[in-house]
Amino acid sequence: MARIKDVEDQEAMVNRAEEEKTTDVTSRNPKWGFCVVRITTAIVGTGVLSLPYAMSQLGWVPGVAALLILWLLTLKTLWQMVEMHEMVPEKRFNEYNELCEHIIGEKLGLYIVVSPQLIVEVGINIVYMIIGGKSLKKFLDVVCKDNCKDIKFTYFIMIFASVHFVISHFVNTDSILGMSMVAAAMSLSYSTIAWSASLKNGVLPGVQYGYKGKTNMANVFNFFSALGTVGFAYAGHNVVLEIQATIPSTPEKPSKGPMWRLVIVAYIVAAVCYFPVALIGYWTYGNAVSDNILITLENPKWLIAMGNLFLVVHVICSYQIQAMSVVDKIENVLVKKFKFGPSFTLGFLTRSLYVALTMFIAICFPFFDELLGFLGGFHFALRAIIVALTKLQAMIFRKIAFSSELQ
Fold it and tell me: So which domain of life are we looking at (predicted)?
């Protein structure tokens, strides 16, 4: 039934888009709780668990500086995107793609920003596959360490993927709110478990805080990779415009006011989650911490098992939220460009093949989650490009206007 509903949504997509252009923006009725939850879910994710590892590659002073500076910098770029939502009179950029294509041009925006963004989204889903498999394995190792047969890591990825082969056909726009609420609750829970268990265990005997690279070049590479890992943790920019599009806006009361307050709340929650995990995790284990602190933790066993189970639930929800955006883009291309008819069969095959593709890559490259630094840097570069080009465009327009006034 969910897939039938999705097909009906696809067939009505164009009509809804036209109606929105003529609809009074004051008639929009946002669900404020949904907005806060979705922004929080987009920002606070599995990247928080890699922050102690990033600290081990950066060191105390550069690490704390990177956490603070990137927190402020990404908050500033979010503010700029909120401002750009209505920078053109009588027009709202409801999606990140629309904003990119307006600034750079339809074709250039597709190649420079939209296509790389799609690559990042698919890469994140592959990372979720690997994280889900690792957390399932860790959960089994904790609760059944001596009495269970050792299972290959590949099978845990397949078990995690099997869940998505089923639920991916029942996910639609109506279920996003529930999944976002579950994901937000899980992320707050396992991040709290991560820093509280680290604090309870105390500093590891013989802990070392120095760089662990064997050469200076290795330390430099690890340093920049860690910056990308921290950048990956501060995500969520791609959904901000979609959320802001649900907020009423008038010339007297533009949507940027309430949207900015929602962003502030979400970033405060992110700081509450991120800083304790990063600082306490690194203080406890030093450079012996792994790229997922829940994998490093061993005691108390019941709490670590619960944390990994929470993480599995979170990545299940986050995978579907992320995959829904990618699959919708693929289905839109198939329908509009290749003239496939919207149908249950098309949706079923598209979603199944997408899950199979991400599972296959995760199995072939089980170290793919170590590329978080690359994905974070890539994603951060996209935000830098769009903001920089917007600033350049604004400067050009002001210069043209000033020249016209002189004439």
Answer: Eukaryota
Residue 289 to residue 198: CA distance in whole angstroms: 11
- Which fold, 30-406? Amino acid/polyamine transporter I (1.20.1740)
Angstrom distance (rounded) from CA 301 to CA 1: 41
Average pLDDT score, the chain: 76
Amino acid at 61: V
Residue 287: pLDDT above 90? no
Cite the DSSP H helix spans in 168-215.
Answer: 176-201
Cα(382)–Cα(209) distance, rounded to whole angstroms? 33
pLDDT band at 356 (very low <50, low <70, confident <90, very high): very high
* Residue ranges of domains in the chain: 30-406
Integer Cα distance of 270 and 188 in angstroms: 9
* Side chain identity, residue 106: E
Query: Is there a contact between 321 and 41 (Cβ–Cβ < 8 Å)?
Result: yes
Cα separation of 67 and 188, whole Å?
Answer: 18
Which two three-digit tokens encode residue 39? 């922004």
